[in-house]
Amino acid sequence: MKNTVLVFGGLVTALLILFRIGRYSLFSGDTRTEILLAITALVFLGIGLLVRKQNSSSPPEAKKKIIPSSEQLKALAITPREMEVLQLVAEGLSNREIGSRLFLSESTVKTHVSNLLSKLDSKRRTQAVEQARRLKIL
Fold first, then answer.
1. What pLDDT, in 10s, does the model give residues 30-65?
2. How many CA atoms within 13 Å lie on the side-chain side of 42?
């Protein structure tokens, strides 16, 4: 990401410099500068198409929805709704965000999170997520 920002920052700076050069060439009547600007524009177009092709050739990873075995969930007594809440907790969502996504009240989400903490023998949400990953249910 940082590399992309630096590259596009450099391209924008170069483009602004070329606009300045083009403005001065308009007053002097020199057509060589206009040809240089056209070639530079084509180079920028090529770079843009190349970057776009690279981004589209490697599609972003689809989020894998892990379906844990029913034996593991039965052993821990985790309900399907608690499993949904646990997956959203692992995504880093707050109780309010989880509630709005699952159409639950915030207090219901708190209850589910509390149940998960006790079932996974954890004191914090992050510990619960780590424990769930260790048990391979997340």
1. 667 667 767 877 787 788 778 777 766 555 554 555
2. 6
Whole-number pLDDT of residue 95: 93
State how many domains the chain has. 2
Residues 33 and 78 placed together within one structural domain of the fold: no
Q: Is residue 92 in some structural domain?
A: yes
Is the CB of residue 128 less than 8 Å from the CB of residue 122?
yes
Distance in angstroms (rounded) separating the CA atoms of residues 62 and 102: 21
3 state SS for the chain? CHHHHHHHHHHHHHHHHHHHHHHHHHHHCCHHHHHHHHHHHHHHHHHHHHHHHHHHHCCCCCCCCCCCCHHHHHHHCCCHHHHHHHHHHHCCCCHHHHHHHHCCCHHHHHHHHHHHHHHCCCCCHHHHHHHHHHCCCC
> Nearest-5° angle of CA 120, CA 123, CA 129?
50
Write down the residue that tokens 């219901």 correspond to: 108
Residue span of the structural domain in which 108 resides? 70-134
Its pTM surpasses 0.70: no
